[in-house]
Amino acid sequence: MFIAAILSLALANAAGASGVKYHFDPLHHLAGIAPTFEDPQLDPAAPQGCNVTRATYLVRHAAIYANDFDYEEYIEPFTDKLSNTTARWRGAGPLDFLSTWQSPISDEELEDLTTVGRLESYKLGVNVHLRYPTFKAPKKVWTSTAERTELSAKAFIEGLVTQTNETQRVSVSEDESEGADSLTPYEGCPKYSSSYGSEQSSKFRDVYTKPIIERFNQLQPGFHFTAKDIVGMQQLCGYETVIRGSSPFCSLELFLPDEWLGFEYMNDIMYFYNTGYGNEISGTIGFPWLNASASLLLADEADQELYVSFTHRELPPTVAVAMGIFNNSAFTGANHINETMPLNKPNHGRVWKSSNILPFLSNFAIEKMECESYGFDSGDYFRVLVNSSPQPLECADGPGESCSENAFEQFIQARGEEFSGFTEKCQPDYNNSTDLLTIYNM
Ligand SMILES: *[C@@H]1O[C@H](CO)[C@@H](O)[C@H](O)[C@H]1NC(C)=O
Ligand SMILES: *[C@@H]1O[C@H](CO)[C@@H](O)[C@H](O)[C@H]1NC(C)=O
Ligand SMILES: *[C@@H]1O[C@H](CO)[C@@H](O)[C@H](O)[C@H]1NC(C)=O
Ligand SMILES: *[C@@H]1O[C@H](CO)[C@@H](O)[C@H](O)[C@H]1NC(C)=O
Ligand SMILES: *[C@@H]1O[C@H](CO)[C@@H](O)[C@H](O)[C@H]1NC(C)=O
Ligand SMILES: *[C@@H]1O[C@H](CO)[C@@H](O)[C@H](O)[C@H]1NC(C)=O
Ligand SMILES: *[C@@H]1O[C@H](CO)[C@@H](O)[C@H](O)[C@H]1NC(C)=O
Ligand SMILES: *[C@@H]1O[C@H](CO)[C@@H](O)[C@H](O)[C@H]1NC(C)=O
After folding, report:
1. What does the alpha-carbon distance between residue 49 and residue 25 come to, in Å, rounded to a whole number?
2. Is the overall model pTM greater than 0.85, yes or no?
């Protein structure tokens, strides 16, 4: 009796009853809708003998109710269909909750910051303060002008400093006429299109949703689930979590771990061809921020110790390309870009994972450090961290996979040779477009 009880408990706990311990959190696989999270692979602490003396940050805004496109394309069609259906959900297994579930999203709030988003921004401010306890409060924090970026910057400043009136929030126009001189340079680049990647990702959408559709249609034949319904439901896991704190759509009984990985891979394909290595213009869009940051960090003197800028999801991945990080082809000795992201099955070994690159509040940091470290020359070193996870650049030759000053300077110059010429490559309609990001010099 007792043994049988223990046994059935053990079986219930082991997913698939294989006896192997397997932990899976769907919230870490939701790409652009992933709630803020950190999962550093390398040690985020400054390497032994090093002190951070200056840093620049690029931050995506925090959690919003829903992105217009996700809402109109996937979520609203699903919730409309749901409110119309005569299908009964009671007894439909893991779909049972749909009999009482109400959507947390309404048209009016769509792109607004959620309360969870505001809290996460504030916490990031606190965490940055704790990371650099000796830094003076910055005179300025920059943000693009959308309400969700402005409010993220505001909450961040409140968490970072004690006298918020002494840190100015500088609004940077999102207009396309700014060329490269904004925190939204893709707006000023006609060679970029927000629809890039949809065609490729929809191929894989049909692959990974097929078994889910069949399972759901067996549970409730009256609803006629489609691939877009499935995507909308998986998106709701993320959005509902950042609105209400949790969501029944995140249940692992509803979608199995591999099915969340399928959702993630579909998004990774989209971002890969939209703002990643699969789009030729990506590095050109990301380079101005990289170069402006490098100039601030390499200068002998600077107005601030900390430079933080808030933007949208498009910019961080282009900066990743400009930096050469999350490159699926790295260490392969070849550069077969498209082959690294097949459209018919996931490449589980890829490093291009949008959940790590552009979750809500995603932040890219470049730190300047003063080091007296065993085995290295003393001097200044530079290191990149994405969501606190150190990312070795090609120039890494210093402690903690940082780059020495010389190597970093040469690296930036080499990236510039590959990715400079924003105006020439983007061919904007404006005759006053610029190649440089100058907002920090004013
Ligand atoms: C819901 O039902 C109404 C009335 O039958 C219909 O006009 C509308 O197109 C339906 N909407 C959806 C999303 O199925
Ligand atoms: C900010 O507010 C504090 C307290 O109200 C005040 O002492 C200080 O002078 C203000 N600073 C600026 C730059 O306005
Ligand atoms: C280009 O001109 C427009 C219109 O006068 C102006 O708003 C914009 O700031 C200018 N762009 C740059 C990069 O100076
Ligand atoms: C990605 O890695 C490949 C292989 O090392 C390299 O040829 C290519 O230039 C890299 N791409 C970028 C944008 O850095
Ligand atoms: C890679 O895919 C893109 C987008 O589909 C396409 O434009 C490009 O030609 C492909 N590159 C190669 C080398 O096949
Ligand atoms: C780092 O900071 C500590 C504490 O302020 C100081 O003792 C040490 O000398 C500094 N090291 C370097 C390399 O600047
Ligand atoms: C990088 O920025 C510096 C300082 O603004 C500028 O002089 C240089 O031309 C920029 N490099 C490229 C390749 O755009
Ligand atoms: C840019 O275009 C405007 C309007 O066509 C024109 O008035 C202006 O002189 C042009 N500026 C330059 C620098 O060519």
Report:
1. 36
2. yes
Atom of ligand 1 at shortest distance to CA of 80? 13
CA dist., res. 125 & res. 361, Å (int): 11
Q: How far is the CA of 73 from the centre of ligand 4 (A)?
A: 34
Q: Ligand 8 centre from 431 Cα, in Å? A: 6
State the DSSP string of 163-226: -GGGSEEEEE---GGGTTSSS-GGGG-TT--TTTTHHHHHHHHHHHHHHHHHHHHHH-TTS---
pLDDT tens column, 146-178: 999 999 999 999 999 999 999 999 999 999 999
Cα-based distances in Å from 14 to 1, 17, 252: 20, 5, 13
DSSP single-letter state for residue 367 = E
Q: How far apart are alpha carbons 117 and 429 in whole angstroms?
A: 36
User: Would strands 389-391 and 403-404 be described as parallel, antiparallel, or unpaired?
Assistant: unpaired
Query: Measuring from atom 1 of ligand 7, which residue has the nearest CA?
Result: 291
Ligand 3 close to Cβ of residue 430 (< 6 A): yes
- Are residues 337 and 171 in contact, defined by beta-carbon separation less than 8 angstroms? no
Closest C-alpha among 263, 44, 290, 279 to residue 180? 290
Instruction: Name the residue of 280, 321, 327, 331 whose CB sits within 8 Å of the most ligand 4 atoms, as the mutation to test its pocket.
Output: 327
In contact, 145 and 175? CB cutoff 8 Å: no
Highest mean pLDDT among 12-26, 98-112, 277-291: 277-291
pLDDT of residue 43: 97
Residue with structure tokens 């989209």? 270
